[in-house]
Amino acid sequence: MTDAERTPSELDQLLDRDPEETAEWAASLDAVARQAGPHRAAYLMRRTLEHAGRTGLGLPPLLETDYVNTVPTAAEPAFPGDEEMERRIAAWNRWNAAAMVTRGSRFGVGGHIATFASAAWLYETGFNHFFRGKESPEAPGSGDQLYIQGHASPGIYARAFLDGRLTEAQLDNFRREAGGDGLPSYPHPRRLPWLWEFPTVSMGLGPLSAIYQARFNRYLAGRGIKDTSGSRVWAFLGDGEMDEPESTAALALAGREGLDNLTFVVNCNLQRLDGPVRANFRIVQELEAQFRAAGWHVVKALWGSAWDELFALDTTGALVRKLREVPDAQFQTYATRDAAYIREHFFGTDPALAGMAKVLTDAKIVECFHTSRGGHEPRKVYAAYRAALAHEGAPTVILAQTVKGHTLGRGFASKNANHQMKKLTTDEFKGMRDLLGLPIPDSAFGDGPVPYGHPGPDSPEVRYLAERRAALGGPAPARRIHPVPALPEPPERAFAALEKGSGRQETATTMAFVRLVKDLMRDPETGRRWVPIVPDEARTFGMESLFPSAGIYSPKGQTYEPVDRDQLMYYKEAADGQILNEGITEAGAMADFIAAATSYATHGEPMIPFYIFYSMFGWQRTGDQFWQLADQLGRGFVVGATAGRTTLTGEGLQHADGHSHLLASTNPASLNYDPAFAYEIAVIVRDGLRRMYGPKPEDVFYYLTVYNEPKVQPPMPEGVEEGIIKGLYRFREGTPSSPDAPRIQLLASGTAIHWALDAQRLLADDWGVTADVWSATSWSELRRDALSCDAAQLNGEDRVPYVTRALCGAPGPVLAVSDWMRAVPDQIAPWVEQDWSSLGTDGFGLSDTREAARRHFGVDAESVAVAALDRLARRGEVKRETVREAAGRYGLA
């Protein structure tokens, strides 16, 4: 090939000090390819690259390696346990997991069997030798954090039954929780808070959260809150789950920050819920390349010991080449076909493979292709886990190949439908018993449900299990609430600044909140426990003042001189920084928040996270994670800034949030507030600190919406604290122009209070109508209180909803207005005795000025005034002509 024909290379722009030497290297490679074949040449190149890496030349690594185990059989460490004992323990757990789901199928509640069947040894090896409990001296109070694959939960319950933490009655209540003593279908801390730490079955959220949990562990250590160096995060995932974008969204973060306290274990059974993960491709190789590119250490545990003979016979590399070529769906077919089929379709395609097959028995071929996988042998799994712990400077992913439905019989193993198969027949259970070698007699199989199996509380198996867990620091998984004292109440002066108002200065409620938190972070008692979290645009929310004082967390500190170093509010990163500034990732910031919000349980260290974001990009974009937060019993403050559909001028539809409060109202753990004034923020935050971090902490979190619209902040009136917390109080009473003046009640939340106050003036000055203005700080809390009262009345209690009592006797109709869609205030309509109507910002947002947007949606002061007159006209208290006249005067007609 001439130089003109050669494809240009980026190396062409670098100086070649010795072109003749370069040509000699190329010629040598060509010679090897001609004489020994291209595969030999490729092998030599890979060996050279491997050697270069060991000697520190710093060449970029290959993204993909051969389809073989990373740890060769000869290099496997000695197995430290009693392998036969652990096999019996695993057998009991396999049996009881299948029995539990099958027994539950009588009630139609479902369950999954095949996932744990494939992954059993991945868990058992970890529980026996690696997973540290809460009492571990290497990780006191924390242990390891285990993200269990959701569909494998029956196997975890089976193990808890074997070690005495669950009873047969509880196993029989799998997926039957209404009676109060059931087991949730998947890992749900809210439903089983003594066992589960992390909810994982909303696929993709487990791996994302695991990365940020490992990162948060480093954050706690960097800030001197707790030494977490002995804790490791283990995330168990399915290869199909890796298709979720959240599963791989933060791989680069883990690689970039060198989170070698993190291990992913991907159960590569090559199947997702309805079929092959990569039917025409190879998921293991794809994942290896993806993780290596992100800076992860990759360990492949693909083949069991039965394959050692085959690899020893592969003197030409034909077997390895063939394994790299076979697509996953075809390999699944091999796992279900007889030896003759495999001889023809696998070995028969290459003369070298055909020669190899001649010395292999049918039994050996069936064993290799049907069952012998790295994920099914404790020695292979142990070697992979040990390799993960030994690697420093990067996170590790273990790609363990298994067979979905392993040990459940030919009706389950590798079948596309096995995810939906919820039970085994009696004959299938007998076959499973024989395969596992369990001492369960035929007489145990009567007309009733299949029996559970247990070797006895004082059996060698249970004693061994207990000894292993004691050596590792107690039971796992386990969630503990540590006996930590309540956080002291912050000083009053931090709240007093907001309660006294802003005088004549206009201040946005966003700025008021940031100022409050900044003052609270200065408190010597609790200030260090605040965790400010922002997905970029901290300056948008006025948080740049925190940069130099609190610092932005970075494990590397600051290795550069910031461009704004000569300014007062310069960009400061530090290894002990307090702010988590995550860049443009709401999902990552939310994962941060969940880790911080549950630190009181995970590490026994209560932290006070506040996560501030564009409100449109919170509940709408990461709503699933808010449910994960609630499920994980998280505590903290979530702040939707630039809130409402009309306050963010010029940004338009994609930034205009008119519905986050409606979405938030669906989450039972979220206490949702739309404060209008700075003093309301002070009262709400103080109440939140008391409820979440006081003597009797509650498993709730607060959602506050704040606005970027500067307004004069009034001082706090006397006696309004209860109304602020409960959701409604009268802010300004109207002054009647005459005893018979028409009257109306205006309820407003957030920035809409200002439109209501202006409408109050217009109604009084122009039309002689008296309006009382109420601040509705929480529509959803009013509704929840009312629903609770309704339930109590059905039980014979005489309870009246707070909203009904607050408005009792208020004259005239009620008109509610907010910067949200009407469904938000309409939540309380059934419990308002007066005539009810509402105004809101239903529909899509748009770009314009605040004034124009509010006129467009019909929520500005003039629109509120005309709507109020209309409600009164319907009651006959003002003339219908007055409504038309007002609409014309205000330019609405």
Portion in beta strands: 5-15%
As a whole number of angstroms, the C-alpha radius of gyration is: 33 Å
Given the C-alpha coordinates, what overall shape results? globular
Oligomer: single chain
Helix segment tally: 34
Q: For the largest beta sheet, what order do the strands appear in spatially?
A: 10-7-11-12-14-13
Which structural class is indicated by helix and strand composition? Answer: alpha/beta
Q: Kindly, what is the distance between the CA atoms of the first and last residues, rounded to a whole number of angstroms?
A: 80 Å
Topology:
Layout lengths: L18 H18 L1 H17 L28 H22 L9 H16 L15 E3 L5 H10 L5 H5 L32 H18 L10 E6 L6 H4 L2 H6 L5 E7 L14 H11 L3 E5 L5 H7 L4 H8 L2 H7 L4 H7 L5 H7 L4 H9 L7 H13 L5 E6 L24 H11 L23 H13 L19 H8 L6 E2 L1 H13 L8 E5 L11 H5 L1 E2 L19 E2 L5 E2 L4 H12 L1 H4 L5 E7 L4 H13 L5 E5 L18 H6 L4 E4 L4 H16 L7 E5 L5 E2 L8 H6 L2 E4 L10 E6 L3 H16 L2 E6 L3 H16 L7 H6 L6 E4 L18 E4 L10 H8 L3 H14 L5 H10 L4
Parallel strand pairs: 1-2, 2-3, 3-5, 4-5, 7-10, 7-11, 8-9, 11-12, 12-14, 13-14, 17-18, 17-19, 19-20
Antiparallel strand pairs: 6-15, 16-18
